[in-house]
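Take a sample.
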Amino acid sequence: MSRYRGPRLRIVRRLGDLPGLTRKSARRAYPPGQHGQNRKKKSEYAIRLEEKQKLRYNYGITERQLVRYVRKARSVSGSTGQVLLQLLEMRLDNTIFRMGLAPTIPAARQLVNHGHVMVNGRVVSIPSYNCRPGDAIAIRNRESSRKLAEQNLQSPGLAHVPSHLEFDKNKMEGKVNSVIEREWVALQVNELLIVEFYSRKV
């Protein structure tokens, strides 16, 4: 399945608040569709599936990519769920979003795809690039790139830059100091249910 490009508020109504997908909030509190208000009790499978879908839609990744991330998280020592969240949070498009250079993760992905972002002095146009501690991230030193970043900085997606990042608004430069800690992950998700969901599949 390709990346989702449909109505975003429909997804927010179904899954809850997704800070990376959209800044808008739904006016109706119940899920979309004809039977949205009359939904019965969810099965255990449905609950796990929803948690998994939250991750997919928030970070804008495909099912195949998510399976790859789960396998990678399994191969690393430590809590699989926590490592999975760290891998997704350290993606370049998400790092740009968390620095406030884009209002949403799809907007950050576009910024990266169009060659406006530099990592360690080189232009990187791959949104899934894995940022590591010590990486210097900057907006390209040209007028169009700076103008776009300045517009985005006036209304960042999230209020605070997480503790593992530092960002200088004047220079349009930032740095990754460490791997993100669990409490700084903005998405409200139960990663253990996601690991359980994939335990039989992967």
